[in-house]
Each structure stands twice: as structure tokens, then as C-alpha cells.
Amino acid sequence: MNGLSLARIRLRSVLMSCRQNSSANFNGGVSLSVDASTGKETGRFKQHNPPIYVGPHVNPLDVGPDFSFVDGRPCYFTSRRQLERKKEQIRLGERIVSLLDQMNDLQKIHEEADAQRRDEQNKINQRKPQAKGTKTIDQF
After folding, report:
1. How far, in Å, are 24, 81, 93, 98, 109 from residue 102 at the CA level?
2. Which UniProt keywords apply (predicted)?
């Protein structure tokens, strides 16, 4: 068979499957199949699950007016959404600063514990007997 007849056969099979799917029990044009390994249906998009990641898209109405006063006065909020977004940004900034303070405190505690551990190890090494043949007279 040549390529043209194969294309016609494929087209005919696609048309037949479209006719079968256009019956009274139409399922949205998505044919369901069962995965052999898991036994679950495949082929449908799950609308009921929330998206895994939502990008940082900000609505222009949440940002505020795109003007500023010449004398430096602040622009007033024109909607409740702008006010809520501003409060949320302030709350997030305060949380970030508090978490950074906690990180700095933990870093200082870790450095102090590390210095104390090194001092204890040096004291232990000073008490241990040392081999006499490894040092020269100049090192004393």
C-alpha cells in the first residue's frame, strides 16, 4: 500500500471514532482508557484539584494608581483590594525581617558552639602525650 491509501484509512478510522463519540453519552471528546499498570482512568483533566503553582501575577487594580505627586505626597488607596495588598506586603516584610533575625541568632549560636568545641578539642590535644621524635630543638 502506498502512503495515500494509509492516510485515507487513518482518516476513515478517525471519522468513525468521532461518530461513535458524538452519541448521547458524549464525554467531552476525550476518550477514556484504563492504564494497565495502575488500573486508573486516564485522559481527563482534573478540574477539581487546585493548581500546583500559581505564578506571581498581580492584578493592575491591586497595584494602585500609576501617578505620583510632584511634592512627594503619597498616593491614596482607591480600592479595598489595594489596601489589603499593601497590608499583606507589610506583613510579609515584617515576617521576613523576623525570620532573618532568627537566622542571624542561630548562626551566632552555631559559631559559638563551634568555637567552644574547637577549644575543648585543643585542650584535649594538649593533654595527650606527644611523640618526642617528631619535633626538633628549634620548635621548643
Report:
1. 63, 31, 14, 6, 11
2. Mitochondrion, Ribonucleoprotein, Ribosomal protein, Transit peptide
Burial 112-127 (b: 16+ CB within 10 A, else e): eeeeeeeeeeeeeeee
Q: Cα 8 to chain center, whole Å? A: 47
- List all residues 6 or more positions away from 42 whose beta carbon is below 8 Å from its beta carbon: 32, 33, 34, 35
Task: Assess whether pLDDT exceeds 70 at residue 33.
Answer: no
Confidence at residue 13, expressed as pLDDT on a 0 to 100 scale: 64
CA 28 to chain centroid, in Å, comes to 32
* 33: enclosing H helix or E strand: strand 33-34
C-alpha cell at 43: 485522559
For the cut 50, the answer to whether the pLDDT of residue 24 exceeds it is: no
pTM beyond cutoff 0.70? no
Beta bridge partners of 33: 42
